[in-house]
Amino acid sequence: MARARKSGALGLWMNGQRVGTWVVTAQGEHQLHYDEAWLASPLGRPISLSMPLRPASAPYKGELVRNYFENLLPDNDNIRQRLAKRFSTSTEAFRLLAEIGRDCVGALQIMPDGEAPPASGVIQCEPLSDGQVAEHLAGTLTAPAFTQADDTFRISIAGAQEKTALLWHQERWCRPLDTTPTTHIFKLPMGQMPGGIDLSTSVENEWLCHRLLQAFDIPVAKAEIVRFGDMKALCVERFDRRWTADGRLLRLPQEDFAQVFGVPPDIKYESQGGPGIRAILDQLKGSSQAPIDRRDFFRTQVLFWMLAAIDGHAKNFSIFIEPKGFYRLTPRYDVLSAHPVMGQGAGRLSSHKVKMAMAIDGKNRHYKWSEIRRDHFEQTALHCRLPDAPALIDELVSGTPRAIAEVADGLPSDFPENLAGALFEGLKQAANALRLPSNPA
After folding, report:
1. Is 311 one of the annotated active-site residues of the chain?
2. What is the pTM of this model?
3. Residues 317 and 424 in one domain
4. Which of 262, 277, 376, 389 satisfies CB 3.0 to 4.6 Å to 362 for a cystine?
5. Choosing from 311, 334, 375, 394, which is the catalytic residue?
């Protein structure tokens, strides 16, 4: 991450109310000052659980502040560099978010200090034809499609994958203007990865994982496969947006677990020092729906192993932040299975080398997918004081045939057969493995 070279201040807003100020001093120190009116507001809440509300006279300082804002940006260096080049600025979070922070993940809007956003929820947009949407998606691969030449469309979407966002309004796709929120994220095929791994069907893969999680009653972001001309994408409805009865579009505050724990995006994996299952389950004890969230997070971890969804790091789990600091788990998102690319030979991932993003407990901590067994999940639940883990696992195992049949019955006629077959077979084998007795290790 580049270091800040200039001092400055940016205003922080949520749905038309000023939240506070983000300051970088002449010495390069990052500070967060909450606004006194926000502290007194019935809608007041922290921007992050890592920085609870406190008077402006006691600002948060240092890497904790910087890390929060770094996590609002794409953590793909190539994407950040393209954005920085477009605006003739650095890749440092303060400079980049000064340009593209009008529509971030969650509710935060970042504005020049002294400048206020328009009235909250007012829609200003430009309708797009299908051809224009196709051009917009194609431009994502060659230029920062998060922006437009007239500077009226500036958004920041965290993550490592190529993506952009648009507004669905009055039954058509639109380019939002000024600070109007986007409603849907478009994720493009990932293509060839290092080592010759072919993820050209990542759109279908993620869609199928979403459908399977839904079949197991796991809350998940709504997603559909869309095509515009030659462009294909996974269209994901943003759960951090909400339409009001009077037609306004509001942003819903949220943050990912890298932000919850105050760590930078480059240590989002537990093996790098990021939060893991124990830390997150412990944090969810404070959720406004703790029993539900803790149970569903544990069930998600078991299903991630069953699906070989190996990228479930801290940034791929989030919470809604509610007034006065109450919080709860958001739906799941960004779930991709490795089953279709696991195997031996060129362009394949060896199952013995595949690692989970978060460790599962036993006598030792287990990251390797091939080494994880049922008793490791049960031991993890025991350490986290989560009751009924054996019953939860049994429900997932017994529900696997039904879930596969339900999802298979709804597959589009042109869905890649090899992808579906590999994922379904991998899921079946994982369910069978969880039925088998195992010895603690």
Report:
1. yes
2. 0.92
3. yes
4. 376
5. 311
